[in-house]
Amino acid sequence: MNKKIFLDKNENPYKPSKNIIKELEKFDIESLRFFPEYSPQKLDEQMAKYLNIENDNIISVNGMYEAFACIINSYDKYKIFLQEPYRDLYIMIFSYYKMHYDIIKAREDYNISLKNNIKNKNSIIIASNPNAETGMFINIKEIEEFLKNYEGIYVIDESYINFAGESAVKLINEYKNLIIIRSIAHSHSISGLNINFIVSNSQNIENMSKLRQKYSVNKISETIMTAALQDEKTSYNNIFDIVLERERLDTILSKEGFIVIPSRANFLLIKHVNKESDYIYEELIKRNIFVKKYDKENILSDFLRVTISTNKINNILINTLKDILYNN
């Protein structure tokens, strides 16, 4: 196979909304002479509408780096905890900002642990739901029970929630210690813009908005994001197709001897009962297929993470895996 297939970054395989082109054609190019607004009001309002929240419950930020900077600097004396499994990106961000953190170990089934062993009020716990490495999902009732007994700040990265179902956004006004990071990069096929949203109660948002970068979202990005949000039909259809392919791939790989972690995201975490993941990974690379492999120190070191793609690409992956398993 000559063409490289990248299934390692969880990018959406489908084209973004055609509404983006329509809006860009109407874009006032003369406006580029001027700086963007300090706060991209149109985008914030559109995302607030999408999430069914008030405008003062949300701010848009320039990627996960700025999201973490706004949150952590709002509570700069707080101790930071990461719930395992955690994204590699979190470690990169903390290294960049020279922030110290401790780890809350995962459960035996690799899901995050919601046992409340952190009694320090001045603490921040960071998790992702669905989990950004396993795809496993914690339901809202479990999160709410945890929040009732935790007095620190709980940050949930919901980057993949559009593939999962119910969001914890509905809890932000009831639990003042809840902060959610949202994204439509994966669900709306616009990872190239690298824009995130912080969602919380209005007081938290007011405090964090004072810490974000000036002009952090440019005018063209705001136009594209707003246009994508306005076209719910395209994103819904793409999400629906990805979820169907996720379930199909899960079923097929399970029959071929793979252990497949139950996923509510746009990827699967897999390992074979007989073949080492390192071996499968290297054989896939030889065939120009790239998936995510974990370091030996990681609790997921025995697994490979595979992005859900189109039916055609997924079939290529399935046939290639069968070839590796049975013909090598």
Largest sheet: 7 strands, mixed
- Rg is 20 Å
**Fourth-level CATH superfamily of the largest domain:** Type I PLP-dependent aspartate aminotransferase-like (Major domain)
Content of β-strand: 15-25%
Strand order of the largest sheet: 2-8-7-6-5-3-4
CA-CA gap between termini: 17 Å
Helix content: 25-40%
The CATH topology annotation of the largest domain reads as Aspartate Aminotransferase, domain 2
Total domain units: 2
The global form is globular
What structural category do the secondary elements indicate?
alpha/beta
Q: How many runs of DSSP E, i.e. beta strands?
A: 12
**SSE order:** EHHEHEHEEHEEEHHHEEHEEH
CATH architecture name of the largest domain: 3-Layer(aba) Sandwich
Number of helical stretches of at least 4 residues: 10
Q: What would the average pLDDT be, to the nearest integer?
A: 95
Q: CATH class of the largest domain, anyone?
A: Alpha Beta
* Unreliable stretches: none
Please give a structural write-up:
By secondary structure, the protein is α/β, with parallel strands linked by helices. It has two domains: 5-14 and 233-327, Aspartate Aminotransferase, domain 1 (Alpha-Beta Complex), CATH 3.90.1150; 18-230, Aspartate Aminotransferase, domain 2 (3-Layer(aba) Sandwich). The chain is 36% helix and 17% strand. It contains ten helices and twelve strands. It has helices at residues 19-25, 41-51, 63-74, 88-96, 140-148, 202-209, 219-230, 232-255, 277-286, 311-326; strands spanning 5-7, 58-61, 79-83, 102-104, 123-128, 153-158, 178-182, 196-199, 258-261, 267-272, 289-293, 304-307. Strands 2-8-7-6-5-3-4 form a seven-stranded mixed beta sheet, with helices on both faces. Strands 1-11-12-10-9 form a five-stranded mixed beta sheet, with helices on one face. Strand 3 (79-83), helix 4 (88-96) and strand 4 (102-104) form a beta-alpha-beta unit. Helix 1 (19-25) crosses helix 7 and helix 2 packs parallel to helix 7.
